Amino acid sequence: MPRRLLLYPLYLHIGALFLGLFVLFGCVLLTLGYQTTLAQSRQQAQQQFALQRQLLSQTLERHYQPIQLSLGLMQQSNLTTARTLSQRLASLPQLQQLLVSNPSVCAVYMGYQNGDFFLLRSLTPQARQALKEPPPEEATLLVQSLDQPTSAHPEAVFLFYDDQLRLLERRYQPEYRFDARQRPWYQAANQQSGIAISAPYFFFTTQEVGTTLSLSADEGVLGADLSMSQLSELMARMALPPTGQMALFDQAGNLMAGSRPLPEAARHRLLSLSEYEGSIFPHLSLSDALTGNSEQRLDLVDEQGHGWTGVLSRLAVKTAQSGTLYLAMLQTEESLYGPALSQARHNLLISALVMLLMLPSVWWLARRTARPLIDLTREADAIRRFDFNDRPLKTSRIKEIADLTRAMVRMKHTIGNFRSIGQALHGEHHFPLLLTRILQESSNLVKAQGVLLYLAQPVGQTTGRGLWQGQELAQLPPLPAELPPEGLVAQDEASWQQQFAELGPYPGALWLVTEALTNRRNEPIATLLLLLPQASEQEQQAKLGLIRALCGSIAAALDTQRLLEEQKQLLESLIQLIANAIDAKSPYTGGHCQRVPVLTKWLAQAACDQQEGPFARFNLNADEQEALHIACWLHDCGKVTTPEFVVDKATKLETLYDRIHEVRMRFEVLKREAHIRQLEAALPADRAEAIRQAMAPVWQQLDEEYAFVAQCNQGGEFMAPEKLEKLSAIAQRRWWRTLDDRLGLSHEELSRKQATPAAELPCQEPLLSDRPEHCIARPPTEQLAEDNPWGFKVKVPQYLYNRGELYNLGIARGTLSEEERYKINEHMIQTIKMLTTLPFPRHLQAVPEIAGGHHEKLDGTGYPKRLNEDELSLPARMMAIADVFEALTASDRPYKEGKSLNQALGIMARMVQDRHLDGPLFRLFVESGLPQRYARQYLTAAQQDEPVTASLLADIPT
């Protein structure tokens, strides 16, 4: 890998530049004399060595760097995973491009893990000579493919191509044997990450000396061969002193190239430095020479006793086996040193003194020149960190630096403005305010005279907004029928009168900018028109670029807000759809789901308006108000699962029909049976009067007993024990049944009746009874475990329904049995179950808790989770008060009349004392006048009595 460059401050570079100039000036002074000329020649020789070393290093880097990049790109190509020769031949264009763009590469190949080998070689003269049979004359490329089939004989083939990759000849090479997995370049690539460079060696096919660059791939190793012959030719052409010599070798002492012709033996094997005849390098001791730093001085003596001096440099390129490459450059001391050495040293000392005297001035000037650039670097780094704080920048008298400073300041302000605009647009959640913000930010960004925004589809009642001379327009002028093309268009007076006359008189020369805003589906969502004052074309084009850059943020913000508004409207419609469906399901609960939200919102707003007391710090932001709104509308959504005949049950015996008619029928039967008995015992007509007198007491008693049963069927506040005893006595009356009561029944009812044996007909039956078939078993799906995931703590009745006649007529309060009351209350369980399954966004996570808590009580005896005071949120307590008040005052219930204000508030006051409702909230509810406000809007005139506030709140905590 190439060595990482060391970085130095700019003032050091400037100082080094000035010092270099002073050195050059000193060298010019040294040339005034003969001795100075000799000293300069020595310096030039040293510089020439450095130049040759740099040239050779750059040559090696030019050899390696493009190849490394190409191998890295090939690592992602299909060649690395190709299985067959046809698949590998598909990569020939890419491989050919690598050879063409890197002339020093003689072959590029891929060795696979299964032993396959695929190579593309340029047919150089050396490559042509290495082949046993000459290739076609037009051939410029050779493909060497070796496949390892399941048999023990691999299949080898040579393919010859021309420059257009046309196949010229296919040769099968059964004697070609080669296992890439055993080659050093293959093993080196697998033992390290990145590019591996092999030590120089003789290539397998052409027997040229070179190195291999290899890189591990998915299913093998990629490789590229580089010939070292070009380095020898380059070193031979380098301009060296007459006595100068150069040699390139590795850490093992293997000779790679040299400035003198190599011996003939170098064509057949690698030579060591000791075999480099005719040069000074056999006298070089590697054990001493290779222990130094990256560059060190060499001093040698040849057989004639002549001294040689030079440098040994460690090149940046390293090989996998032999390590670092070294370059040695030597020349005789006689060519460098001479009689004039003492005079050269004298002149050099004078130059050094001059440079030392000028060093402080150079240092000061370099620091002063570089300081503005240092500040600009810090400012650019701050911008990279999105730090747009204002910091003063050093000014400079250098025009380019001053222009760069001004450009940096403008860029910082532009990026900062765009960042602020983006944050402002995406942080605004109210659509009308968003439109106003878009107009203001657009106008401020380009100093527009007017900004008009037309929405493609209205959002609510909003079709767009306009801003003219800093003031928002009360009415947006109509969008011009024919819009000019997007970009800058001059707006003359005639165009103004045709399109924008409603804005006012023509203000002078203006430019109109039209930009269409689209969403992520490339659908038009708005049109933005800006009227810009007259300015230079360069400035207008700059503003146009800012506008187009801003339009992306505006379109994203508009599209996002439109989607949010549409989703909110859809959610609101669905919520009201569910609530209206619940109210429409039963005419007796109509309006309940609509009135409870009104009351709850009024109470919440009253709490927010309090400046002192327990609700002084209570406040609801927009998200919390939305959560409360949704919870109010969905607080009874579980009622969609409650049977309608249970919700609408008006009498105790009513199921799908009122069974009092059946009971009445039985009384009729008893009356007729009594009549029949009397008729049977009657004598002729002269005894009729006596019969009627005998029947009258029986009929009267039956009428009275039926009236009592009918009275029991109507829900009341309390069923006294003596009434239950009388009801049981009446039930004991018997009547004769002569028909089979199992005929014409549904399968379900018949299965319940078969639990008991059928009676032999005719048989007597009690007037009223609780029979086994009246009890409907609760299915497993209706069971509720104690450790249920919702935390419900309710007593589940044994039966789903109990339709026993005595059981229902004996209901102590109201018309609902325990099973039916559970079914009614079960809507809270279903509400919580339904709402917890909905993926509410983060700001609406409290909806299930608020909607499902309005039947809980502060003392922990509520329904369905038995939450206590600490576990109930304030919005849930508010909804509980609204729900109870609405239920007490509703006049559309079939089993009761609506309470007046005083009656309802009195009951609620007792519920507060029993710790069923929140006391401070109830006090706020009464003192804020919400009951009277609700009564004027929803209650009848008879219910609107004036509450006695003092007595109601006497025992209510503050």
Automatic annotation (TrEMBL):
Keywords, sorted A to Z: Membrane, Transmembrane, Transmembrane helix
Domain of life: Bacteria
Pfam family for this entry, one: HAMP
This protein's name: HD domain-containing protein
CDD domains cross-referenced by the UniProt entry: HDc
Sequence ranges assigned to domain HD-GYP in this UniProt record: 732-941
Residues in HAMP domain copies: 367-420
Keyword Nucleotidyltransferase included in the entry's annotation: no
Membrane spanning residue stretches: 12-34, 348-366
PANTHER family recorded: CYCLIC DI-GMP PHOSPHODIESTERASE PA4108, CYCLIC DI-GMP PHOSPHODIESTERASE PA4108-RELATED
